[in-house]
C-alpha cells in the first residue's frame, strides 16, 4: 500500500546517506548550500550524490538568501528538482526565482507564535510548497536545522492553499504525534536523524521514516 506521508531527509553529507534514505522510503532528499551549516556541500559533491538518486525522488537544494550568481552556478552544476528558499526571501523574490530557473520553489517559514501565521497565506500565493519550521533564536547561526520544534497547536486544523511540509525538531520519537496533531502529510528532518551534528545515521533515518509512515522500523546490526 502506498503511504500517504512523504518524508524529506535533509542535509545529506555522505554519499552513503542517499541509499540509506531511499531504502527507508524518503521521497525528498535535501542538499544544503549554506557555508555556515555543518551540512554544507560543494556543487561537485552534491552533483555526485544527486546522480545516484532515481527518478521520482525529489532532489531539493536548500539555499539561504542566495543571489542569482549563486543559483545560476548551482542549477547549472547540480541536477535538481526543487529549490528550497530558507532565508528572508520576499514573495517577489520567490516569483523571480521560479521564473528564472523553472523549478518548483518551496519557501520555508519560521513560526514561533500566532503573529507568524499571516505570512503563510502571503507565500501560499506565490510558492509551490511551504515548509513550516521553528523560527530560529535571535542569535542563531543557522536559520534552520537547529533541532528546535515550535508549538504544533498553532497550525493544527489549518486550511492550506498549497502543499506543505512540517519541519523543526522532528525525531523518530515525536514525528507520529506531530503528524497526528497538525495533519501534516509531509515531514522534513535533519538534526533528528543525526548521530552528531552534520552526520546522518542510517538507523535513525530508518526509525524516523518508519515512525512517520506508521511501519515497524528495521534493525541494522
Ligand atoms: O540543515 C541545515 O543545516 C539548515 C541550514 C540552514 C537553513 C536550514 C537548514 N535546515 C532545514 O531546517 C529543517 C529543520 O531542521 P531540524 O530537523 O530541526 O534540524 C531541516 O529539515 C532543513 O529543511
Written account of the structure:
The chain is an alpha/beta fold. It has one domain (about 5-215): TIM Barrel (Alpha-Beta Barrel), CATH 3.20.20. It contains 7 helices and 10 strands. It has helices at about 15-25, 45-50, 70-75, 90-100, 120-125, 175-180, 200-215; strands at about 5-10, 30-35, 60-65, 80-85, 105-110, 130-135, 165, 185-190, 195, 200. The strands form 2 sheets. An 8-stranded parallel β-sheet has the order 7-6-5-4-3-2-1-8. It is globular, with a radius of gyration of 16 Å. The two termini are about 25 Å apart. The structure holds ligand LGQLAAA5. Ligand LGQLAAA5 binds near residues 11, 30, 37, 64 and 148.
Average pLDDT level: 96
Annotated CATH homologous superfamily: Aldolase class I
> Which CATH class is shown?
Alpha Beta
Which ions, cofactors or small ligands are bound in this entry? the ligand O=C(O)c1ccccc1N[C@@H]1O[C@H](COP(=O)(O)O)[C@@H](O)[C@H]1O
Contiguous runs where pLDDT drops below 50 for at least 5 residues: none
Q: Could you tell me the radius of gyration in angstroms?
A: 16 Å
What strand order characterises the main sheet? Answer: 7-6-5-4-3-2-1-8
Percentage of residues in helical conformation = 25-40%
Number of domains: 1
Distance between the termini: 27 Å
User: H/E series, N to C?
Assistant: EHEHEHEHEHEEHEEEH
The computed structural class is alpha/beta
Q: Specify the number of helices.
A: 7
Number of strands: 10
Amino acid at each position: 500500500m502506498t503511504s500517504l506521508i512523504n518524508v524529506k531527509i535533509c542535509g545529506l553529507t555522505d554519499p552513503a546517506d542517499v541509499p540509506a534514505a531511499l531504502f527507508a522510503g524518503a521521497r525528498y532528499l535535501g542538499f544544503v548550500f549554506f557555508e555556515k551549516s555543518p551540512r554544507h556541500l560543494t556543487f561537485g559533491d552534491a552533483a555526485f550524490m544527486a546522480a545516484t538518486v532515481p527518478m521520482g525522488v525529489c532532489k531539493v537544494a536548500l539555499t539561504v538568501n542566495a543571489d542569482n550568481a549563486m543559483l545560476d552556478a548551482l542549477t547549472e552544476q547540480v541536477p535538481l528538482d526543487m529549490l528550497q528558499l530558507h532565508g528572508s526571501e520576499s514573495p517577489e523574490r520567490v516569483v523571480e526565482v521560479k521564473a528564472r530557473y523553472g523549478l518548483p520553489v518551496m519557501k520555508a517559514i519560521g513560526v514561533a507564535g500566532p503573529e507568524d501565521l499571516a505570512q503563510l497565506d502571503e507565500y501560499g500565493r506565490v510558492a509551490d510548497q511551504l515548509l513550516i519550521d521553528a523560527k530560529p533564536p535571535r542569535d542563531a547561526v543557522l536559520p534552520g536545522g537547529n533541532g528546535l520544534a515550535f508549538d504544533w497547536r498553532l497550525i493544527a486544523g489549518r486550511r492550506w492553499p498549497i502543499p506543505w511540509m512540517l519541519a523543526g525538531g522532528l525525531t523518530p520519537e515525536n514525528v507520529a504525534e506531530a503528524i497526528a496533531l497538525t495533519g501534516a502529510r509531509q515531514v522534513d528532518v535533519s538534526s533528528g536523524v543525526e548521530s552528531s551534528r552534520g552526520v546522518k545515521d542510517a538507523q535513525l533515518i530508518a526509525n524516523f521514516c518508519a515512525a512517520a509512515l506508521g511501519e515497524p522500523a528495521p534493525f541494522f546490526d
